[in-house]
Amino acid sequence: MTPHILVAGGGIAGLTAALALHAAGFGHVTVVEAAPGIRPVGAGLNIMPNAVRELDALGLLDELEANAVRTRELRYYHRSGGLISCEPRGLGAGHHWPQLSVHRAHLQRVLADAVRRRLGPSAIVTGVRVTGLEQLPDGRPRVRLEHREGARAGRASLEPDVLIGADGIRSAVRAALNPREGEPPWNGMLVWRGVSRLDARRAGRFMLIAGDDRCRAVVYPMAERPSGEVLVNWALAMPADSIAGTPRGGTLRSTSPGSFRGSFRGDWNRAVPVSDFLHHYEGWEFGGVNLPEVLRAADTAHEYPMVDREPLLRWSHGRTTLIGDAAHAMYPIGSNGATQSVIDARALAHAMAHHPDPARALAAYEAGRRPAMTELQRANRRQGPEVVINLAHRRAPGGFDRIDDVIPPHERREIAARYAATGAFDPETVNAGSPYEVPVSAP
Q1: With bands split at pLDDT 50, 70 and 90, how would you rate the model's confidence at 270?
Q2: Which one, 148, 171, 176, 197, has the greatest CB density within 10 A?
C-alpha cells in the first residue's frame, strides 16, 4: 500500500519535500499550510549552486530562472567604502550550476504550481495548522489539526504513515517533540528587509555585503524587468540597543544584566516606514550602489528580530522528523536558509526511497544531515564568511589604502573556502553531482 506522507508547512522546505518525494516514487503526499493560501510574501533569497543543482534535478531550473538573476559576483565592503574582497560566484567560480538571486514569492509559486501539477490540486491544503501530535505504539504519528475556515472549520486528527515538520522556526511539530524548548533565542539584533525598484544603471550587477562589526547591509539584484527596472533586495542589521532598546510591539526577556540576548515575543513581521532607520545609513555607497537611494525606492519595509534555534540532539522520533528551519533555523548569514531546506528535502526523499522501514529512513536522513547543519548553525553564529567585515573593522576601524595589509589574501581565501566546505557548496562538492538521485524503480 502506498504510504501517506503528511508535510506540515507549505514553505520552501515543505513544497520541495513534496516534489522530491513524488520524484522518488511516493504518490500520496499532502502538504498542510496554516496560512489561508500560498501567498506571495517575503523578500529576496540567494540559492546556492548545490541547491540549484537539486532544483534542476526536479525539472524546475528553467521556470525558476525566468524571473531570477544569476549572481556572478559577491563583494564585501568596509563601512568606509573600501573593498575587502571580491569573489566570483556560481558559474564564474567554476560551479556547473549558477547561484540564483530570486524573490521568495517567485520560488514558492514555482514550487507550489509544480506540486499541484504533479501530485494533484488537492495535494496542498491551506488554512490547516498542526496543534499537537502523539506517537502511536507502531511509531506512526497521530496528528491533531485545526481547520481554520470554510465548511471543514474545526478540529480533527489524522494518522499518516510519516509526518514531516517543515513548519518553520516556530514549528508546531518541533514544539510537540520538544515541549520545554520555548521561543527562539534573540541575539539583540534587528533586521529590516525590503524590495526596491531601480533603474538598471543604479542597481549594480553584483551582490554586496557592507558595514562594520555592529551595523551591516546586504544588497543584490534579483529580477530584471523588460522596462529596464530591476528588483533589488536589501537587508539591514543593527543592534536594538543602538536605536530604541527593544523592537516596537514586542517584549524582551534578557538573560543577563545589560545583555540583549533573550527571547522576543511580539510581531515578527512588522511593517515600518523606511524613515525609521534610513538616517543610520546616510552616506553609505559601495561600488556605485547608493544605499539611501535604494532604501528610498522601496515599496515597504519590514522589521524582524534576528533569531535562530539551538541545535537539537535529535530530529526524528519514530515516523516523524523535521526539515528546514523547523530542524535548524540559523541566522541570515551566508545565504544558507532556503538552500539547506532544499537539500534537506532531497536528502529525505532519497532516504525514504532506499529504506523500506520509514523509521529507519528518517534515522538515515538525520544521520546524513543533522551533524552538518549543527556545524553550519554554529558557523553562522560566528558570522560565517562575513567575519571578514569584522576583521577589517577591528584591524582598520578608520578604513585602509590596501586591504592586503589588513587581511592578507590567503586569510580571506581560507575564510571563504572554509564556509563553502561547511555548507557543501564548494565547486568540487557541487560538481560531483547530486548524491540524492533516486532510481526510477524506487517505490
Answers
A1: confident
A2: 171
Burial of residue 10, with CB atoms counted within 10 A of its CB: 0-12 exposed, 13-18 middle, 19 or more buried: buried
Per-residue confidence (pLDDT) for residue 169, from 0 to 100: 95
The contacts of residue 315 (CB under 8 Å, 6+ apart) are 321, 322, 327, 362, 366, 369, 370
Q: Which domains does the chain possess?
A: 5-182+310-383+423-431 (3.50.50.60), 185-307 (3.30.9.30)
CA dist 3 and 5 (Å) reads 6
Give mean pLDDT, residues 150-163.
Answer: 84
Residue that has been written with the C-alpha cell 592586503 in this structure: 404
* Pick from 340, 364, 342, 76: nearest CA to 209: 76
CA 65 to each of CA 43, 55, 68, 109: distance values in angstroms, whole numbers, following the listed order: 17, 11, 5, 13
**Spatial CA neighbour of 237 closest among 193, 285, 174:** 193
Dihedral angle of Cα 263, 265, 269, 272, to the nearest 10 degrees? -100
Give, in order, the Cα–Cα distances in Å from 417 to each of 10, 338, 370, 423.
33, 20, 21, 10
Written as one letter, the residue type at 65 is E
Q: Is the pLDDT of residue 441 over 70?
A: no
Cα 73–chain centre separation: 20
User: Smallest Cα–Cα separation from 45: which of 338, 297, 380, 302?
Assistant: 338
pTM: 0.93
In this structure, the dihedral spanned by the alpha carbons of residues 152, 153, 155 and 159, taken in order and rounded to 10 degrees, is: 30
How far apart are alpha carbons 425 and 46 in whole angstroms? 13
Mean pLDDT score of the chain: 91
Q: CA–CA separation, 423 vs 202, rounded Å?
A: 32
> Closest by alpha carbon to 108, among 64, 71, 66, 166?
64
Q: What angle do CA 222, 228, 233 make, to 5 degrees?
A: 25
Q: 97: closest CA among 54, 45, 46?
A: 54
